[in-house]
Amino acid sequence: MINSLAKKTVLNAKLAALALAVLGLAGCGGAVSGAGPYKGSIESKNETYNLVDINASTITPYMAGVPRPVLTNITKPRSAEVRLAPGDTLSVLIADTAPEGSAVFAPLASGGTQLNTRIDTEGMLSLPYVGRQFVAGMTLNQVENMIRRELKGITTDVQTHVELVGDLSGSVLVAGAVKKPGRFSTLQGPLTLLDAVNQAGGPVMEPHLVNVTVRTGTESQQFNYEDVLAGNNMILRPNSEVVLDRARQRFVAMGAVSEPGLKDLPGQNTSLLDALGSVGGLREANANPEGVFVFRMGSGPKGKPTVLRLNMRDPAALFYARQIVIKPDDTIYVTNAAVYEWQKVISPIVQTMLLGRTTGIYN
Q1: How confident is the model over 163-188, as a mean pLDDT?
Q2: Which strand (E) or helix (H) includes residue 77?
Q3: Cα separation of 260 and 266, whole Å?
Q4: For residue 277, is pLDDT > 80?
Q5: What distances in angstroms separate CA 187 from CA 21, 90, 194, 226, 330, one per listed residue?
Q6: Which of 78-87, 180-189, 239-248 has the lowest mean pLDDT?
Q7: Which helix (H) or strand (E) is 175 found in, with range?
Q8: What residue stretches are annotated with the Polysaccharide export protein N-terminal domain (predicted)?
C-alpha cells in the first residue's frame, strides 16, 4: 500500500514537472504563439486606433462610392507639329525650273533631284549648294523655306519638298511593364496613349494594377490604366515618354486564412468578401468567425488608424463584407478560435504524456 502510494506520488510529481515544463515553453511564446494579437486584445480599449463594429448604422463610410460613368467620347488623333531633332532622316526633293541644259538640279518633269540626309548630333543638315545648316527644332516647312532661300541666285526658280522618313523627334518611347517596350514612330500618323501601349504589346498585369506616366519634357501626368480604358485617352505629343509600372494595389492577409501573405487586390473597389475569397477564405479548422478585422492606417501623417470588426456568425455580415471596400495597404486579420488556442496548450502536454509512457517513465 505504501509502495503503491509512493509510486503514485512520484508519478504525479513527474507529470506535474512535465506539464510545468511544457507550459513554461508555452509561456516563452513557443507552443501558443500566434500570427497576431488575440481577439480580446484588439477589442480592449486602445487609444492608438478607432475600433468600429460594423453593422447597418456604421458601414456607410466604408462602402464604395458612386462609380464613375464610362466616357463615350473617342479620342481622335490629330497631327501635331513636328520639330526636328538630331538623328532624324529627311528625304529632300529639289526641282529646277530652268531650261534642262542649264539647270543645277533635275527639272520637276523628270522627278527632280532626290536627296536623303540625316541631321547630325549637332543638329546640322548638309545639302549640295546649301551647305551645313542648323535645323534642329525647325518644322519641315521652315526647312523648305531655308533651302529655297539658300539656293536663291544659284538657280532661277526652285521647288522643294522635305519629308521626314526616319524620326526620333516624332517618335514615342514606351517602357516599363509592357510586353514589347520600344520606340514607336508617328510617321504613319499621330498616336494616342492607347495606340502606343497597344503597339508595345499591352501591359503585363491586370489594368487596375498598372500606373501610366506620360512625360513630354515640360510636364508629367499619371493615370491608372483602367481609367484610360474607361475613356480617359489622350493624344501623345511627339517625343513623349510613356512609362508603365506596378501600382501599389496590395493588401496583407494574416491569421486564420487559407493563404496568408501579401496579395494583389483582385480589382478596383475590391470588397472584403472578394479579398477573403482571393486568399481561400477563413480556415475552418481554427478560424474564429467572430474575429474578422480590417486594420487601416489613418489619412495624413497625424490621422488615427481604424480597425473594423466583423462578426461573420451574423448572416447579415456576408452582405456587409460585400459592401466594405478594401483599400491598398489594408491588413485583413482573422483571429484563432479560443478552443484552438487551448488545444495548442493541451496538445503538447498529451504528447509529452504519451512520450513518457512510451519511454517507461510511468512504469
Answers
A1: 85
A2: none
A3: 15
A4: yes
A5: 80, 12, 17, 28, 46
A6: 78-87
A7: strand 172-176
A8: 78-164
Most confident of 35-49, 53-67, 284-298, 314-328: 314-328
Higher pLDDT, 164 or 156: 164
Q: Read off the C-alpha cell for 343.
A: 488545444
Task: Return the minimum-mean-pLDDT range out of 28-42, 113-127, 300-314, 321-335.
Answer: 28-42
Neighbours of 358 (CB within 10 A): 9
| 160 and 110 Cβ atoms separated by less than 8 Å | no
Specify the amino acid at residue 221. Answer: Q
Q: How confident is the model at residue 258 (pLDDT cuts 50, 70, 90)?
A: very high
What are the chain's domains?
39-67+269-341 (3.10.560.10), 89-166 (3.30.1950.10), 172-246 (3.10.560.10)
> Which residues lie across from 93 on neighbouring strands?
114, 161
Q: Name residue 174's beta-bridge partners.
A: 182, 242
Instruction: Give me the torsion for CA of 76, 79, 80, 83, rounded to 10°.
Output: 150
User: CB-hemisphere CA count at 13 Å for 21?
Assistant: 11
Q: How far apart are CA 8 and CA 21, in angstroms?
A: 20
Cell of 42: 484588439
- Answer whether residue 95 shows pLDDT above 50: yes
CA distances from 31 to 27, 168, 178, 346 (A): 8, 66, 47, 10
Looking at per-residue pLDDT, the higher value among 5 and 325 belongs to: 325
Q: What angle do CA 230, 235, 239 make, to 5 degrees?
A: 130
Kindly tell me if the per-residue pLDDT of 342 is higher than 90: no
User: Which residues is 132 bridged to in the sheet?
Assistant: 126
Cβ neighbours for 208, distance < 8 A, ≥ 6 positions apart: 224, 225, 226, 247, 249, 265, 267, 268
Q: Which residue is associated with the grid cell 512510451?
A: 358
Higher per-residue pLDDT: 341 or 260:
260
How many angstroms separate the most distant Cα atoms in the chain?
142
